[in-house]
């Protein structure tokens, strides 16, 4: 009965914690997405109102010029081979304007005098603005049938369709065919379409240009749909569980911007209206909410079994302490023991062997010509030489042996249950293995000199090391003399 009651109470606590966490996660995710979508909406409306301001400025410039003698300020070229007119298409390089002019066929006289407007448009487009989305400007003249776009495009990048100004899809996007109600804000959003230059799916924000109260063209901003997607910052965990799309209300068309792999039951739906026809939606699957709430539920479970958790922490603390002790007696470069173990582990090992009347030997190892390697090849290669020596010592030793880096290029190997004669054989193997193996990309080798001794029953390890060191230096002198004789 008591156990059943505990299970019931725990279940109630877990369910309550689960419901609270799910609600909080839904609220936090909703708030996060609303903030992102609000930034997108704000950026698009900023572009729209700025575009409206540009349209008014250009309309004023057009009307002022209509009251004066038209004058061509830039050269408009005819490209018969392209069936186009314009400039900055890579055909002539004498034009300093930043944009590209593209029209169909030969330019009309009015198109030639229209050029006074392009420097004005360039100046407007040159304003620096920092927004979360990418965009490109353009101006289109219905009267003279040309486009002026904000970047330079060579003729190899795209060809303007010869009937573009006659197609139904294009005409439906023109301000000329929009109602007064649609134009009263000074701008409108087009339906998404494929851009003829980038081949990306885009939509445009357009504002009409007037001359004597008649619409003669549009100035617009092209916004790639992918730009909207990239402007929405999402946690990595949310990528597979979110569905973002544009809803074109007039056509009931869904334009998918991002669709995760795991959309089963949308529990969050955030939307923002952009302009008069476009909704941007973000839907989040319930599994993301459950995954996000899981850590908090786990915390509740941990609190329920607090005693076991505390015991686990105590055990972990012990392991950590052992790790710290091991690190304190380990050489960082080679991974071998450092000389601190001589006064702890080695002393205890020697004492155990004494009690059991077993031999203990040691090998002292010193690198030959280590200073020359450092001087000639640098300390990185010197470190590689030390690692090479230490790895061979470790590989050729037994699990019961103690491998020590005494300091610098000097090493020591403590060998329990080994006589001096056996130690000499191991030392010979070490010398051969180290000297015959290349250890770096340079074609160089290193070698060692060793000395062996058996620790006496009444002798300390320090005294044994002193004896071995003396023998080591004698061995190095003998090696040097033998080398000189061979020269």
Q: What's this entry about, in short?
A:
This protein is α+β, with helices and mostly antiparallel strands and 487 residues long. It is built from 13 helices and 18 strands.
Q: How would you sum up this structure, described in words?
A:
This protein has 487 residues and is α+β, with helices and mostly antiparallel strands. The protein folds into 2 domains: 1-304, no CATH class; 329-486, Reverse transcriptase/Diguanylate cyclase domain (Alpha-Beta Plaits), CATH 3.30.70. It contains 13 helices and 18 strands. It has helices at residues 2-66, 109-113, 117-125, 168-172, 180-183, 225-231, 286-304, 306-328, 345-355, 370-377, 379-396, 420-435, 461-486, and strands spanning 77-79, 84-87, 100-104, 136-141, 146-149, 188-189, 193-194, 201-211, 214-224, 242-248, 253-259, 266-274, 278-285, 337-338, 360-368, 402-407, 410-416, 447-454. A hairpin with a 6-residue loop joins β7 and β8.
């Amino acid at each position: 009965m008591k156990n059943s009651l505990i299970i019931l109470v725990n279940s109630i606590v877990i369910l309550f914690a689960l419901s609270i966490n799910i609600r909080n996660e839904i609220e936090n995710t909703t708030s996060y997405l609303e903030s992102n979508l609000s930034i997108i909406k704000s950026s698009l409306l900023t572009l729209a109102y700025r575009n409206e301001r540009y349209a008014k400025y250009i309309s004023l410039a057009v009307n002022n010029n209509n009251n004066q003698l038209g004058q061509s300020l830039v050269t408009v070229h005819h490209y018969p081979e392209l069936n186009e007119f314009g400039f900055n298409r890579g055909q002539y390089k004498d034009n300093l304007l930043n944009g590209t002019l593209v029209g169909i066929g030969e330019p009309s006289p009015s198109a030639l005098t229209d050029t006074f407007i392009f420097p004005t448009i360039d100046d407007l487009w040159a304003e620096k603005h920092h927004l979360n989305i990418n965009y490109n400007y353009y101006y289109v003249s219905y009267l003279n049938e040309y486009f002026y776009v904000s970047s330079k495009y060579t003729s190899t990048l795209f060809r303007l369709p010869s009937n573009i100004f006659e197609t139904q899809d294009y005409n439906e996007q023109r301000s000329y065919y929009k109602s007064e109600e649609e134009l009263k804000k000074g701008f409108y959003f087009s339906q998404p379409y494929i851009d003829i230059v980038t081949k990306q799916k885009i939509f445009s924000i357009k504002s009409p240009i007037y001359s004597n109260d008649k619409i003669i063209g549009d100035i617009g901003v092209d916004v790639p749909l992918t730009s909207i997607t990239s402007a929405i910052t999402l946690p990595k965990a949310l990528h597979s569980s979110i569905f973002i799309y544009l809803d074109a209300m007039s056509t009931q068309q869904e334009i998918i911007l991002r669709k995760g792999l795991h959309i089963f039951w949308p529990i969050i739906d955030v939307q923002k209206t952009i302009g008069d026809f476009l909704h941007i939606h973000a839907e989040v699957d319930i599994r993301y909410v459950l995954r996000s709430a899981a850590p908090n539920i786990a915390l509740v479970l941990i609190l329920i079994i607090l005693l076991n958790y505390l015991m686990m922490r105590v055990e972990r603390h012990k392991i950590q302490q052992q790790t710290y002790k091991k690190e304190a007696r380990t050489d960082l470069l080679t991974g071998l023991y450092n000389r601190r173990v001589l006064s702890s582990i080695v002393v205890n090992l020697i004492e155990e062997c004494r009690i059991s009347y077993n031999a203990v030997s040691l090998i002292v190892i010193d690198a030959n010509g280590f200073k020359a390697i450092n001087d000639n090849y640098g300390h990185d290669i010197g470190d590689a030489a030390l690692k090479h020596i230490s790895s061979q010592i470790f590989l050729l030793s037994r699990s019961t042996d103690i491998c020590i880096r005494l300091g610098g290029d000097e090493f020591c190997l403590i060998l329990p249950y080994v006589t001096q004669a056996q130690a000499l054989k191991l030392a010979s193997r070490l010398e051969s293995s180290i000297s015959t193996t290349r250890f770096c990309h340079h074609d160089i080798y290193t070698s060692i000199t060793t000395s062996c001794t058996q620790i006496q029953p009444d002798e300390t390890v320090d005294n044994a090391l002193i004896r071995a060191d003396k023998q080591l230096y004698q061995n190095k002198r003998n090696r040097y003399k033998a080398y000189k004789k061979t020269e």
